């Protein structure tokens, strides 16, 4: 009897899961968008004011990071931005062009070193695997701050008293989970100075008004959202799991850093993001809100729209500027 491989689940354009456990992440959507998911090789020389380097955090570790170093002469120590990529916990890598294009720009404009973690992906590695990788990267930064390990760019140029978490979409969920886990730990001499969830995938099992009424976009459709979460959350979980639905959690007594919650007015999940914002305020947490008007989920990662649409370009400029101001003020 010959075994016949067949697809048991898929997210159109992005991912197919087969009955033997194999996951195919070959891009099958419109070819003009493929370049945004192409890997960008690291370059130690400065290109447009930023150099990049990929490395393993420890000799015996499989955990990798990409480091972005801006070319800012005589500026003293630079804040460190720890980045967690999006992709519904199931797709994307830290070296994808869409992240390279965004985070080289942020490193340059914010005058900060960016460290982006290569997160393990579901369904092969369901949550909390990606959260564990993210937190392990924070502990590696603590080891660097303490001099237990050495990485030339970070050890020489990084200000470990000003470490910020940032994440796109599902990476925004990871930001909150890492901030909560860090709240109960002594990270000295590292200080977590802020957390920046950008368009986090906060939602409930019951669809919100915005999920029902807001337009879908190339970066987020309801089918994509629900299927990724089905594949990514711990087995048997619903969308009411705390990773995706932190709105009902008790946050009193949890020592969270200041937050900058970035939302987009036309995002499918803006209603539940705003619910999270209100719960943070009720709990007395320091949380600022940055709203991108008239635009949808993760718009700033879409290089084609940035180049062709003045609205997307302007809202991207404002978002980068808002994040840079938050970092500069903390």
Task: Describe, in plain words, how this protein is organized in 3D.
With 330 residues, the protein is an alpha/beta fold. It has one domain (41-328): 3-Layer(aba) Sandwich (Rossmann fold), CATH 3.40.50.1820. The protein is built from nine helices and eleven strands. The chain has helices at residues 97-110, 129-145, 152-157, 170-183, 209-213, 222-232, 270-282, 303-308, 310-328, and strands at residues 7-11, 15-18, 23-24, 50-56, 64-70, 78-84, 113-117, 158-168, 192-198, 259-264, 287-292. It has an eight-stranded mixed β-sheet, sandwiched between helices. A three-stranded antiparallel β-sheet has the order 1-2-3. The model has no long low-confidence stretch (mean pLDDT 95).
Q: From the coordinates shown, what is the CATH architecture?
A: 3-Layer(aba) Sandwich
CATH homologous superfamily - what is it? Alpha/Beta hydrolase fold, catalytic domain
Oligomer: single chain
N- to C-terminal distance: 64 Å
Mean pLDDT: 95
Point out poorly predicted stretches: none
Measured as a percent range, the helix fraction is 25-40%
- State the CATH topology: Rossmann fold
Work out the strand percent: 15-25%
Largest sheet report? 8 strands, mixed
Shape: globular
| CATH class membership | Alpha Beta
Please state the structural category: alpha/beta
């Amino acid at each position: 009897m010959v075994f016949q491989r067949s697809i048991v689940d898929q997210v159109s354009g992005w991912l197919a899961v087969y009955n033997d456990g194999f996951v195919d992440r070959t891009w099958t959507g419109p070819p003009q968008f493929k370049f945004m998911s192409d890997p960008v090789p690291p370059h130690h020389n400065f290109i447009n004011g930023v150099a990049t380097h990929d490395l393993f955090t420890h000799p015996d570790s499989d955990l990798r990071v990409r480091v972005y170093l801006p070319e800012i002469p005589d500026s003293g120590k630079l804040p460190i931005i720890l980045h967690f990529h999006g992709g519904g916990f199931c797709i994307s890598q830290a070296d994808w062009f869409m992240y390279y294009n965004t985070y080289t720009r942020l490193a340059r404009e914010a005058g900060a070193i960016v460290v982006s973690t290569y997160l393990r992906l579901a369904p092969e590695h369901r949550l909390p695997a990606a959260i564990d990788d993210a937190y392990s990267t924070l502990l590696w930064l603590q080891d660097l701050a303490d001099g237990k390990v050495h990485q030339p760019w970070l050890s020489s140029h990084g200000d470990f008293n000003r470490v910020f978490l940032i994440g796109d979409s599902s990476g925004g969920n990871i930001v909150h989970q890492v901030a909560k886990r860090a709240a109960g730990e002594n990270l000295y001499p590292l200080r977590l100075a802020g957390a920046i969830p950008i368009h986090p995938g906060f939602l409930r099992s019951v669809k919100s008004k915005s999920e029902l009424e807001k337009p879908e976009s190339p970066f987020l459709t309801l089918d994509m959202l629900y299927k990724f979460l089905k594949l990514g959350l711990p087995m048997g979980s619903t969308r009411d799991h705390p990773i995706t639905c932190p709105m009902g959690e008790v946050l009193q007594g949890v020592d969270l850093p200041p937050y900058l919650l970035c939302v987009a007015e036309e995002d499918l999940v803006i209603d539940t993001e705003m619910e999270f914002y209100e719960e943070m305020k009720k709990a007395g947490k320091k949380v600022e809100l940055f709203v991108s008007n008239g635009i949808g989920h993760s718009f700033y990662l879409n290089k084609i729209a940035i180049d062709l649409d003045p609205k997307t370009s302007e809202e991207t400029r404002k978002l980068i500027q808002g994040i840079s101001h938050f970092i500069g003020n903390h």
